[in-house]
Every structure is written in structure tokens, then in C-alpha cells.
Specification:
nucleotide-binding; alpha+beta; six-stranded mixed β-sheet; 8 helices; 34% strand; binds adenosine-5'-triphosphate
């Protein structure tokens, strides 16, 4: 029976879904909704419950508690093949003894026996969509990893699913192919507008492809929002450091005026920030500054905030340069700069000015990740 309160624009709704494995609570009363046509990504560290959530949606695992509806209908007891889902997993498991054509046609044949002409038309459409025309007679072993992934997508989409489930679909590809397939999957999503649930631990994949990102931690969703919003206003220090890099710091509120807080760090550096509602004078205040929000300048500079710092390390990547810096009371800062043609890079040991404005300071609800947030440099000069 359709739920009379169900929103027809909602493809999936999970309410209070829980799952425990051997006394370990893996999902903790999880709520999640996916709108029709939406691309939603579950992003989080290993073990936070992303795949468990996806497997419950797929019907491959039963939850211990909670409710699930698909297209407004209770789906808790619906067998997987009746859920009208398309699935692509990390190991894309094409049938090795079948041609590309037969691999893609497989799902259609499982649904019933459409005429050979209908099967051919649909498979051709899919090959066109994933940009593999002419590959229908090949076997998976004759295809590159990226091409196999395109076939896996075509196989998942050929039946016209209501919801496409993607579990780490790009993690077996090398970095260049992964970037190419991110853009491909986004293009296919924009063409078909099929509602999609992606599971990944890659912030880049999440930022590039999603309409909304749900950041998971310990079996719960900590923050759900569109990519640009989650990046600009992550709220917690965990989300701030998981979606992007950040300098997370802790200070004390010295003054509060019209929603603006004056914050001092233990050694006297100070700054102003948009205040969070729970901040009080004399209380602790956590905040973050993204590496790209610091302007690194050689000497005195006019800006709302200017901190003196010393370059402790540098990594040059061509289009960008990352500096590790130490300021008084903030010994581990990271700044990201765009080297200008003809401009010079700062050397290790050099004194610089770090300039930023109030709008660059992200107020946070907690300082859990303070000091540990910015990813370490991997190559140095
Ligand atoms: N069938 C199972 N039996 C026992 N424990 C399980 C089972 N499946 C998952 N777990 C445990 O549940 C937790 C969450 O697993 P899940 O695969 O959902 O995490 P994830 O966020 O997808 O992480 P990853 O990216 O590493 O797969 C992990 O601690 C995992 O070891």
C-alpha cells in the first residue's frame, strides 16, 4: 500500500534505520531521503557504515530496526529484484564469458523476454550513452578497466531503474581514469536524471559528482548539504577536515557584538569571526581557515587580519604551491597559493604575512580536530 503521507518526489526514505553486527552498532537510527533525479553521495571514513546503508537499500542486508520506503511504498520486505534498482560495485564483475552486448542485455532478459529487436535497440542506446558504440562483440577481457566500468554502468541502467546504487565504483581505476569517469558519470546522470546513491570515501568524487553530500561518521549522518554549502559551512571540525583541508584552531571569545566574535588564541593572535549561537564571552571558540583563504605576502600588507609567520616547508605542484607555516601560537598552519608567472616562491625560513578576512573564518561547533587537521605534506622541496 502506498503511504498516504509519502511525497511522490521522494525516491528513497530511510527512517531510524539501525544495524548491529556482533554487538557492534554499525548504523544508529539513520535517516536519509533521496529526491527524484537527485545524485546523493554517502561520504565517510572506512567503517562508518556507508556500504551497510547501501546494502540495506539494495535488499542484500536486513536492518534490525527502522523503516524504508521506495517511491512512497514500504520496501522493507521487498525482494531485491522487485526494488527496480541498478547497481555498480567496486569489482564490477562483468560476466567474462559473455560479450559486451550479452552483458548489457542480461538485465533485460532477467526482467522477462523482450523481443530481440527491443533488446538490440536498448543495448545500442546504452552503448551510445556510455560512449562505447561498436564494442558490443567484445569480451570483458578485451576492454580496459575504464571501458569495463562503462559496460557495468550500461548494464545497470538498461532496465531504466528508479535508483542507481554505486558502491566505490571508481576505486579500481587509476587516478587519471578515475577523474575521467567522475565526469562521465556526472554527464550520464545529467542526461538520464536517474536518482543515484553513491558510496565513496573520496572527497573529490563526492564534490565533483553530487547534488548533495551526506558525511557519515560512526553510523550516523553528521552533515548533509550541497557540495559548496558543506565546504563553506561544515559546522563540525570532522566534516570540515573530511571535506577539504583546513587549519582548525581553538581560541577564547573575548568580545561579542552584533553576531561578531573577537577571538584570541593562547599566545595573543586574534581575529574576528561570525559567532555561533552557543558562543559566550570567556568561552571556548573553535574555527577553521581553509589553506586557500590565506593570502601569503612577503611583507606588511593591508587586510582585516594579518598574522606574521615563518615558512617551515613548501611543496610546489606547478599550478599551486602549498606552504607549511608557523605563527606564534599556531605552529602548524598550511596555506595554498597560486604561483604567478614571474613571481617568486617563498623559501623555507622566510618571514611572511598571512592575510585574511572575517569571511574566511569558518566558525565550528567543536574543536576536536584542532591542530591535527591539515593533511601532511607528502613531497617537499
Ligand atoms: N557482514 C558483516 N559482519 C560483521 N561485521 C560487518 C559486516 N559488514 C560490515 N561489518 C562491519 O560494519 C562496519 C561498517 O562497515 P561498512 O562496510 O558499512 O563500512 P563502510 O563505511 O562502507 O567502510 P568501507 O569503505 O571500509 O567499506 C565495519 O566495522 C565492518 O567491519
Amino acid at each position: 500500500m502506498p503511504d498516504p503521507s509519502a511525497d511522490p518526489e521522494l525516491i528513497l526514505r530511510l527512517e531510524g534505520v539501525s544495524k548491529t553486527f556482533q554487538n557492534q552498532r554499525v548504523l544508529d537510527a539513520l535517516d536519509l531521503e533521496i529526491a527524484r533525479g537527485e545524485f546523493l553521495t554517502l561520504l565517510g571514513p572506512s567503517g562508518c557504515g556507508k556500504s551497510t546503508t547501501l546494502n540495506i537499500v539494495a535488499g542484500l542486508l536486513s536492518p534490525d530496526g527502522g523503516r524504508m520506503t521506495l517511491r512512497g511504498r514500504a520496501a522493507d520486505r521487498l525482494p531485491p529484484r522487485k526494488r527496480r534498482l541498478g547497481m555498480v560495485f567496486q569489482s564490477w564483475a562483468l560476466f567474462p564469458h559473455m560479450t559486451v552486448f550479452d552483458n548489457i542485455a542480461y538485465g533485460l532478459k532477467m526482467q522477462g523476454s523482450p523481443s530481440a529487436a527491443v533488446v538490440k535497440t536498448k543495448v545500442d542506446e546504452m552503448l551510445e550513452l556510455v560512449r562505447l558504440p561498436g564494442a558490443e562483440g567484445k569480451f570483458p577481457s578485451q576492454l580496459s578497466g575504464g571501458m569495463q566500468q562503462r559496460v557495468a554502468l550500461a548494464r545497470a541502467l538498461v532496465t531504466g531503474p528508479d535508483l542507481l546504487l554505486l558502491d566505490e565504483p571508481l576505486s579500481n581505476l587509476d587516478a587519471a581514469l578515475r577523474k575521467e569517469m567522475q565526469v562521465e558519470i556526472k554527464r550520464i546522470h545529467e542526461t538520464l536524471k536517474v536518482s543515484t546513491l553513491l558510496v565513496t570515501h573520496s572527497q573529490e568524487e563526492a564534490l565533483v559528482m553530487s547534488d548533495r553530500i551526506a558525511v557519515m561518521r560512526g553510523g550516523k549522518i553528521e552533515r548533509i548539504a550541497p557540495p559548496a554549502e558543506i565546504y563553506a559551512d561544515p559546522r563540525s571540525s570532522f566534516v570540515c577536515t573530511f571535506v577539504g583541508d583546513a587549519n582548525v584552531m581553538l581560541g577564547r571569545v573575548e568580545a561579542l557584538d552584533a553576531g561578531v566574535a573577537r577571538i584570541v588564541l593562547p599566545t595573543g593572535l586574534s581575529l574576528s569571526a561570525t559567532a555561533r549561537p552557543e558562543w559566550t564571552i570567556g568561552g571556548e571558540a573553535a574555527f577553521a581557515i581553509r589553506p586557500e583563504s590565506f593570502a601569503v605576502r612577503p611583507g606588511p600588507v593591508e587586510a582585516e587580519h594579518v598574522w606574521s609567520a615563518t615558512v617551515t616547508d613548501r611543496i610546489f605542484k606547478g599550478g599551486t604551491v602549498t606552504y607549511e607555516l608557523a605563527a606564534e601560537g599556531a605552529p602548524h598552519l598550511t596555506a595554498l597559493a597560486l604561483p604567478r608567472a614571474g613571481g617568486r616562491l617563498f623559501e623555507r625560513g622566510e618571514s611572511v604575512a598571512l592575510a585574511f578576512g572575517r569571511q574566511d573564518v569558518i566558525p565550528l561547533a567543536d574543536g576536536e580536530m584542532a591542530g591535527a587537521a591539515v593533511r601532511p605534506l607528502t613531497e617537499t622541496v
